[in-house]
């Protein structure tokens, strides 16, 4: 049922059930006239973002991500842990990605755009982002990812309340 596009409301209820069991805010559809998809969801989280706490650098490699970049970056800018440096490394995109990046970066000073002159691949883009990262913690987020608002907060809490040097989060592939 979770993969049956004919039952979007039921699918969303199943997803929200899993999120609520993990004490994570649920999801809602932005436009009922469009199918349930990453570009058409928003969190129901109403908490005020917290700008205190350690700076977290989020590296986002992108190549020709014009169709997904807006919802991906929106999910980062709406994190409950708001002390972020979002480093978007444009891997020589040939679509509307540079234009979209410029618009989004102008609207949020936490977003830093770095452009590679020639296509080098996602690992080279991540490494380029790592070289300019200033955060106490560093994570990655692909240009077609969408993250729940509590993701960075939960990861930072797990690292600061333990002696662990790294952590990971679970993800779900949507397609």
Ends apart, CA distance between termini:
14 Å
Strand/helix succession: HEEEHEHEHEH
Specify the helix fraction band.
Answer: 25-40%
Radius of gyration: 16 Å
Structural class call reads alpha/beta
- Number of helical segments with 4 or more residues: 5
Largest sheet: 4 strands, parallel
Key features of this structure:
two-stranded antiparallel ribbon, 175 residues, four-stranded parallel sheet, 17% strand
Q: What this model shows, in words?
A:
The model has no long low-confidence stretch (mean pLDDT 92). The chain is an alpha/beta fold and 175 residues long. It is built from five helices and six strands. The radius of gyration is 16 Å and the shape is globular. It has helices at residues 8-21, 69-77, 97-107, 122-132, 151-160; strands at residues 27-29, 41-43, 56-62, 84-90, 111-115, 137-140. It is 31% helix and 17% strand. The strands form two sheets. It has a four-stranded parallel beta sheet with strand order 5-4-3-6, with helices on both faces. A two-stranded antiparallel sheet has the order 1-2.
């Amino acid at each position: 049922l979770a993969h049956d596009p004919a039952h979007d409301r039921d699918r969303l209820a199943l997803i929200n059930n899993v999120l609520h069991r993990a004490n994570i805010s649920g999801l809602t559809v932005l436009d009922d006239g469009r199918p349930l998809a990453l570009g058409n969801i928003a969190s129901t989280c109403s908490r005020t973002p917290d700008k205190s706490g350690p700076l977290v650098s989020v590296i986002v490699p992108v190549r020709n991500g014009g169709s997904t970049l807006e919802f991906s970056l929106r999910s980062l800018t709406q994190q409950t842990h708001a002390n972020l440096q979002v480093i978007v490394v444009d891997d020589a995109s040939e679509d509307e990605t540079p234009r979209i990046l410029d618009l989004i970066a102008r609207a949020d000073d936490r977003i830093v755009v770095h452009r590679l002159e020639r296509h080098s691949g996602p690992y080279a883009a991540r490494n380029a982002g790592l070289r300019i990262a200033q955060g106490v913690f560093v994570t990655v987020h692909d240009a077609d990812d969408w993250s729940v608002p509590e993701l960075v907060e939960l990861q930072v809490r797990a690292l600061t309340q333990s002696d662990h040097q790294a952590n990971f989060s679970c993800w779900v592939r949507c397609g």
